[in-house]
Amino acid sequence: MKTGLITSDTYQNHDTGPGHPEQIARVTVINENFKKLNNKNILWKKPSIITDDIIKDAHEAKYLDLVKSSFPMKGFSSLDGDTIISPGSKNATFDAAGSIVAAIDGVQNKEFKNAFCSVRPPGHHCNQNKAAGFCILNNVAIGAKYLINKYKYKKVAIIDFDVHHGNGTQDIFYDNKNVLFISTHQYPYYPGSGSEQEKGKFNNIFNIPLAAGTNSEEYLNAFEFALKKLTEFKPEFILISAGFDGHQADPLAQLKLQTEDFYIITKRILETSKKFCNGKVVSILEGGYDLKALQDSTKRHVDALIESN
User: Domains along the chain?
Assistant: First the structure.
């Protein structure tokens, strides 16, 4: 079976203004690279049209109304200090959330084995009712709720290897026994959360804080704890918040991961989980702000997904 690559055309309309790190080129370099490689094991697909009901499983109705009314007719506006929006941001935002729905449906319907969503804006800093850190809707949380509500899964794991803690995702699932949230991240660092003391109501939150300067070997050793937790939980489906800003070239953080590490991380997740979830894995882009590192690292991430088919 193939690996799905879900992407939108509308990501190009989400203009964050000059000099903003969460720029249009992030997804362009990823997509152009995959087009050039023309791998026959990749099945390209567009996002689904997402309904308000699906979004409201993860976000408060009032917040969704606020988001919808916030997009400017022209120029720029902001949902928080970092989260800039423009007229075209609306379609990009809803397509990013729709991509994870299309990916999940594609895996469930055996259209492809697993999937990577190459979309923006990212999502993991957004909680039930607040945009933050470039994130407008929490794509991965919407996906987890969709798995539970539509497909009746009882055990969904979210693994977040973005360099920043996925505080929004943690908030949404803090008291949800059906979801295991595992995050590796630089700490202390933005957004300030993600200590080992934050465990969730059902011991379902597992944070692995890492010091600035953590190298590949140190990271991969620490990641063994995440894999152990995954084995204990025995998830039926895995979602990955795939941030590539832990790369040593990234301008926004200070971890020292190499391109190849993202292949190893992905491979280990797949190997650890296949006996529980039969390879049902959907990954969605979060951070990653050095364009070359992002292009190369996403390729290795998807290589691992393809090889597991």
Answer: 3-7+26-45+97-126+139-307 (3.40.800.20)
Residue 130 exposed, middle or buried by CB count within 10 Å (0-12, 13-18, 19+): middle
CB 123 within 8 Å of CB 139 = yes
Q: Which of 125, 164, 247, 301 is catalytic?
A: 125
* 125 is a catalytic site residue: yes
Q: Give mean pLDDT, residues 146-169.
A: 98
Q: Are 5 and 113 in contact (CB under 8 A)?
A: no
pLDDT in tens, 85-140: 999 999 999 999 999 999 999 999 999 999 999 999 999 999 999 999 999 999 99
pLDDT, one tens digit per residue, over 58-80 is 999 999 999 999 999 999 999 99
How far is 120 from 117, CA to CA, in rounded Å?
Answer: 9
Q: Is 254 exposed, middle or buried (0-12, 13-18, 19+ CB in 10 A)?
A: middle
Tally the residues of the chain: 309
Q: Please say whether the beta carbons of 124 and 172 come within 8 A.
A: no
Strands 237-242 and 205-210: unpaired
Contact 282, 20 (CB under 8 A): no
For residue 217, the one-letter residue type is E
Angle between helices 25-37 and 291-307 (to 10 degrees): 50
Q: What is the DSSP letter of 12?
A: G
